[in-house]
Amino acid sequence: MPITAGRARGDAVEAVALSHLQAHGLQLLARNAHSRGGELDLVMLDADVVVFVEVRYRASAAFGGGIASVDARKRRKLVHAAQVFLMRNPKHAQAACRFDVVDASGDPAAPCLQWLRDAFRADEA
Question: Which domains does the chain carry?
Answer without folding.
Answer: 5-100+107-124 (3.40.1350.10)
